[in-house]
Amino acid sequence: MTFWLFLAVFLCGGLCQSEESDLGYGLNIGNAIDVFANYGDLSQVTQVVSADYEEENAEHVEPFREKNIRLFSNISSRQVSGDTMIDMNILLCETFDDLLATYFENFRIEGTDKPWKAFLGDWILDEIMRAFGIEYDTKPDNCCYVLVKLMKVHKSVQLDSLDNVTVKDYVKRAIDKLNVSDASDVRRFMKSYGTHYIDSYVTGNFIYQVFKYKRTGYNLLRAYIRQRNMRQSSSDNLRFYFSSYFLKQVGEIRIASGNKTVETWAKTNLRDSQYLYSRPSLLRLHYNPILAFKLNDLLDNGALLGLGLKTLRPLFKDRHKADMFAEIVENDMKLWEVNA
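== Torso-like protein ==
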């Protein structure tokens, strides 16, 4: 009797240690997370928008801090180093929802068309606007937006095929016991082993600024950019279309990693003077390569620039079980999305 009791304790201890060693909080490609654990506030465990931490703690901020678990034992991935220089993008957004969708365009969560809601869905409108550097507005869709950002990619990682991967033994046992016809049983499984695995991610940093436009000015800017792209002309009147005549508000410069040292540098060194106005503007970097090089040196690897999450279908050899599990995950995603 004592022997069997000892054996049971030994096996349980080994299993618990195995699961414990597979838990992590950093960016681990192929590992699984429970999207619902922090749905609506994933920005608290991922560095995706400007944060308000103190400057002395900036070095301790990690791009990804969500609990994740290793479910596959033999995965492989491809890693590509990023560009050595920042790249400027001018992105046109018809509505405030378009602005949020555009900001999170490199984030994909299988089962939802609005991944930004997983990160900011629980935030009140005032908090979101502060993170984007603009003033609170009760009717944000009465105007249009332009997101200007300069991005520096540190690395991109993509998971290889999961066709021949091996699932951890303790996960297999949990799957064998799982009753996919019982939604509550599936949700208990999600809490233990997750809903999605990390299929890809991009780290680096980017600095961004939101310009709020009158609709007439926005339409003129859009037409100008379209014509410039078609003509591929060397003439550049871009600065004219960012003048006060067309704008309702110039947002503050923000940085995705939340590094206040870089934000302060940008506010001090990127001032643009037009007529009687002087304000920080990222467009200075478009015309001043020396400042662009200086900023390039300041940008670190403190932000998550992209993330791809896929449902845990590959865990299940039984196609019916896989479909039932994915259906419950995706239905829950839609409910959470509507309520966020």
